[in-house]
Specification:
Number of strands of chain B: 0
CATH topology of the largest domain in chain A: Cytochrome Bc1 Complex, Chain C
Distance between the termini of chain A: 108 Å
Radius of gyration of chain A: 30 Å
CATH superfamily of the largest domain in chain A: Cytochrome Bc1 Complex, Chain C
CATH architecture of the largest domain in chain A: Up-down Bundle
Oligomer: heterodimer
Strand content of chain B: under 5%
Distance between the termini of chain B: 60 Å
CATH class of the largest domain in chain A: Mainly Alpha
Structural class of chain A: mainly alpha
Structural class of chain B: mainly alpha
Shape of chain B: elongated
Strand content of chain A: under 5%
Number of domains of chain B: 2
Shape of chain A: elongated
Radius of gyration of chain B: 27 Å
């Protein structure tokens, strides 16, 4: 057998496939399409995002083989992966860190595209698919946090549900749709699992495909130069001509920079994963309705910071309207300015905007990370009510002190110097708030305090407010102004039995 | 400018070292979650730390804390293991969480039994002695720790003689027949409030001698007065038991991770 025959034999299966699928013909442009010579290190962020996405898919599939998506087993299965599976913890750490890294890289990529005006004609749809990719990836990060099914997951869901709840008219239905019922339960996890492993990745892969197709179709933009103006009617011809003349093939020329950058990213990722380990799972999932541990994952930390700064009166409006406005603005960007100058130096207003947005996000993230809000998670069950707050209290007030522990108020509020610092210390709250105001605060929450409304029944509410009304310096009267509270006149048991207890309003307070 | 070859080499080296780094010596890396240190269930340190993180917030000692103090020899003298295990497993009233895992709580039945045993050995043997609420007294202390059914009509008389001075109209201690209060406390809670009291807070322990009741109260008298007080609890809601949970509350409302 001579050389020729061997070569032919080797070649023919490939040819056979190529003839029937056109795979090579199809993918050749992917590899060899010409990109501008000026495309240098600025252009690596998109590739790095894609790399992180690939890592997410691979590690995600591996995790999917071991994760138990049921409310009773999820947490245990994560522990199992961490402790029993060889390299299991590394897998989780990579998946977790790569998710945050992907969001960050995407943001940088987007910023670069914005600053270079690359979204202008003919690449408007590149930008818009990118915006939807960003949303999909944020949704993936959020649903991923829920997969841990620990206390952070509860917190995230709680806040999410609270935001959805604020929607006028359909709030309840939307909440039920999101949680699979009125409260966070096993159905919720199944729902989010389906989203996280089927629906959202499917959407993301489709969008990535679309995004890449558009990139091939429209080419990669050149480095912006002041004075080189985008004119839609002539842009395409000029661009194609320049590519033919001065462009370089993506493979093997441009790809090298991408490879180096991805390599550095990968190293960094592995370092983060190896050094800091996997995210969570935090405390055992706790079916407490009001979860007091407020730590979202990093991509959402700035939202957390922003929400904490909102004045309570405007919260609903801002929480519901701001995301919609934000998305509309992002989608509208390429339509608002799809021609003209691309160079940053000729678009100072836009640069200022970008800088302000970046600074705001960084500052809000900082706010979210550093504020001394960390509640004391076991405050409710570990910190006894100090003597001065139980001495001389009536039995009802005493029960109020119990409810104060039971409802985990202590995790966020100090009494006698011990407790969470998330809300103000309540040692002297009766000097600033009337019983009515106290009821409103506990029922409706506000600021960063959850609304306890339906989670406390009328007796609990009455008792807790009665207890709070006694929290003042010793020489002052209880806040049931005017005058101190008088002991209840004794009633006959017969009349007591007829007392209506059905009303879920804490009306009892004023009848004292 | 670097040549393409250099680029390629650099990229290969980076990717390769990343992979090697990831999988060599994985077991010794800093980020590997440490397995929880094994704690010996039932050891004094386990008991103390479990109690401190899970119970102390409500049950402390002396005048501190909102619910009945458990670091209290008087309580352990009367309360049987079976009673405490029952309460701990399934909760009591509205605010005492249930801790048994099959009830949705964080502790297994073995851990609960060990916790009760540990608490008894720490506080029951008089180790806290006179510091406990009723520790030092040599009273009768023979009133059962669990509720016994009583007769409300006779209870009214007991209340008038023994309790009304403090809890009656104009009394300094506040009403115990306020329906809101009664919706929050169980009959067992009332029972314990009468039997053990909170002497540091001025609430007498009726298993001890009192100035005008030299022998304290008998089991029957306590049963009577508790059933008289419990009558004032709104029945529509509570059916005689103060288990008033809103329907959206899961059973194990609060018992958190104590492991």
């Amino acid at each position: 057998m001579n050389r020729e025959v061997i070569l032919k034999l080797l070649k023919s299966p490939a040819q056979w496939i190529e003839e029937r699928t056109g795979v090579v013909a199809f993918s050749a442009p992917l590899l060899f399409h010409h990109v501008p010579r000026s495309a240098k290190w600025w252009y690596v962020f998109g590739s790095a995002t894609l790399m992180f996405f690939t890592i997410q898919i691979v590690t995600g599939i591996c995790l999917g083989t071991m994760y138990a998506p049921s409310a009773s087993n999820a947490w245990e299965s994560l522990r199992f992966i961490d402790e029993e599976i060889p390299f299991g913890w590394m897998l989780r750490a990579l998946h977790g860190w790569s998710s945050s890294a992907m969001v960050v890289m995407m943001a940088i990529h987007m910023l670069q595209v914005f600053m270079h005006g690359s979204f202008k004609f003919p690449r408007e749809l590149n930008w818009i698919t990118g915006v939807f990719l960003l949303l999909t990836v944020l949704a993936l990060a959020f649903t991923g946090q829920v997969m841990r099914w620990d206390q952070d997951a509860y917190w995230g869901l709680g806040i999410g549900a609270a935001i959805v709840d604020r929607v006028p008219v359909f709030g309840d239905q939307m909440r039920a749709l999101m949680l699979g019922g009125p409260i966070i339960g096993g159905e919720t996890l199944n729902r989010f699992f389906a989203l996280h492993v089927f629906i959202l990745p499917g959407a993301a892969i489709a969008l990535v495909g679309l995004h890449m197709t558009l990139i091939i179709k429209n080419g990669i933009s050149e480095m912006p130069k002041p004075g080189e103006i985008v004119v839609p009617s002539t842009y395409r011809e000029g661009f194609e001509e320049r590519m033919k003349k001065t462009g370089v093939p993506f493979f093997p020329d441009a790809v090298q920079r991408d490879m180096v950058f991805c390599g550095v990213c990968l190293l960094l990722l592995v370092f983060l994963a190896a050094y800091y380990g996997p995210f969570g799972p935090g405390g055992m999932p706790d079916p407490t309705l009001i979860n007091t541990n407020p730590r979202p994952d990093y991509p959402f930390m700035w939202i957390f910071g922003a929400v904490s700064l909102l004045p309570p009166a405007s919260e609903t409006a801002i929480m519901l309207v701001a995301p919609v406005v934000g998305i509309v603005i992002l989608v509208a960007v390429p339509f608002l300015a799809n021609s003209g100058e691309r160079a940053p130096s000729r678009r100072p207003g836009m640069m200022l905007l970008a800088v302000v947005v970046v600074m705001a996000i960084v500052a809000l993230t900082w706010e979210g990370v550093t504020s001394p809000w960390s509640p004391v998670m076991d405050g409710w069950s570990a910190l006894p009510t100090p003597t001065q707050f139980v001495k001389g209290r009536t039995p009802l007030q005493m029960q109020g002190a119990v409810v104060f522990q039971f409802a985990q108020c202590r995790n966020c509020h100090e009494l006698g110097g011990f407790g969470g610092k998330r809300g103000p210390a309540l040692d002297e709250v009766a000097t600033r708030m009337s019983p009515d105001q106290l009821i409103r605060q506990v029922q409706q929450g506000g600021g960063n305090m959850p609304a306890f409304g339906k989670n406390l029944n009328s007796a609990q509410m009455t008792a807790i407010v009665d207890f709070l009304s006694t929290l003042h310096p010793e020489n002052e009267a209880d806040s049931a102004i005017p005058g101190a509270q008088l002991p209840l006149p004794i009633k006959s048991p017969l009349t007591m039995n007829t007392v209506s207890s059905g009303a879920e309003t804490p009306a009892g307070i004023h009848s004292r | 400018m670097m040549s393409p070859q250099t680029y390629r080499l650099l990229a290969c080296v980076l990717v390769f070292s990343a992979i090697v780094f990831a999988f060599v010596g994985c077991d010794r890396l800093h980020g590997k979650p440490t397995e929880a240190a094994p704690t010996v269930i039932g050891s004094p340190s386990w008991t103390q730390s479990t109690f401190n993180t899970s119970c102390l917030g409500c049950h402390s000692k002396g005048a501190e804390g909102a619910a009945i103090p458990l670091m209290n020899a008087g309580y352990w003298k009367v309360a049987t293991d079976a009673h405490v295990i029952q309460v701990l497993s399934h909760g009591q009233g509205v605010s005492m969480p249930n801790y048994l895992d099959s009830d949705g709580g964080p502790l297994t039945s073995d851990e609960i039994a060990a916790l009760v045993k540990g608490m008894r050995s720490m506080w029951g043997a008089g180790s806290l002695g006179g510091q406990g609420a009723q520790g030092g007294h040599a009273g009768q202390g023979d009133i059962s720790a669990t509720v016994v059914a009583g007769d409300a009509a006779s209870g009214a008389k007991v209340f008038a003689t023994a309790c009304a001075s403090c809890h009656g109209t104009g009394g300094s201690a506040g009403s115990v027949t306020d329906p809101m209060y009664l919706r929050l406390i169980s009959d067992q809670g009332l029972w314990s409030a009468v039997v053990y009291g909170r002497t540091e807070l001025g609430s007498p322990a009726w298993n001890q001698p009192m100035p005008n009741h030299p022998t304290g109260l008998t089991t029957t008298e306590v049963a009577d007065v508790v059933s008289w007080i419990a009558q004032a609890r709104p029945v529509s809601k509570a059916q005689g038991q103060a288990k008033v949970q809103t329907k959206s509350q899961p059973k194990n409302q609060n018992a958190s991770d104590t492991k």
